[in-house]
Amino acid sequence: MILRRKLCVALVIAAILFLMFASQSIQKKNFLPLSLALPFSWATPTNEETVVQPTAPPAGLTHEPPVSPPPPNTPKPEAEEGSLGDPQQDQSRPCGCSDSCISDVEGSDWFSKRYDPKQQPVLRETNNFDPDAIKWWLGLQRSGTDQTLEGVISKMFKVISPPTEDFRPLPSRCRRCAVVGNSGNLRKSGHGSLINSHDFIFRMNKAVTQGFEKDVGNRTTYHLLYPESAVDLSRGVGLILLPFKLRDLEWLTSALSTGEVKMTYMRVKDRVAADKDKVLVVNPVFFKYVCDHWTERHGRYPSTGMLAIIFALHTCDQVSVFGYGADQQGNWHHYWEQNRYAGAFKKTGVHSADFETQVIQQLAKEGKISLHL
To answer: Could you say which of 198, 223, 333, 351 is catalytic?
Structure first.
């Protein structure tokens, strides 16, 4: 009896052990550990484990496919036209001035018909000259030279430095310029401080400042001249040559080097004091442009004063004009002298003072220059 009970107990224990081993075997075959069953492990890594973090895409890249640009001439959807954001995006100011930019031709049909932003006002080593414009320019004044334009320019740029200035308007800058004429109406004007306040100051021909600082200022950035009106320039002042003939280009080369050119159609300064690295030469083609677009062929060719203003319109962002026209008594003379023959040029027909005055006044009316008479 006792033996039978012991045997039953042994069988029960054996059955229990069998069931335990069978259960463990089934679990190993059908289940993964929790750390491997989840997509990201929350378990703390050991020295033998590496946790790979999700990698961010490189800067500038996205997971979205690139968007192809619309084909050319694709019209805007009607919903976009006239939206409030269009003016800021499509009509950005061409220069850095807060109130106005000369190169912004919007709002003035008169100005937009005359102002050509593609014009190159400064002569450079490589120019694609318009043959008709050069032919016209060569006929302005007799030159008395058998040299070619290309040959003269090549020699000139061996003496002066090729221009590096970029005159295109930029949103990052505002170039405020004063163009100071030589009219007697500058006397007792008191414009000296206002003139000096500009970034760039253009004077011309035989202009003087000493003794007239209260009315004309004492700063000069660029001095426009031609051989017959040449003067020595102070250090730091840039020379701008207005060449009315091929001989003028030869004179510039000579006046800054050998001094061999002493005559044009009259006796001229054989040497001139100026910085060779600060010399600019107005493009001959620019003369034709001013004559056709601005003075509209009134007179044989534009005056120095007219050329100076239009030159400034193409190299500055805002322009103020001083000292143009006759004085209050109607006399034409320079502010530093009394010359009763100063207005004789009006009778020659070379320049049309009356028409040029109308153009200057219209520029002021259109808001493209600030005129101080």
So the answer is: 351
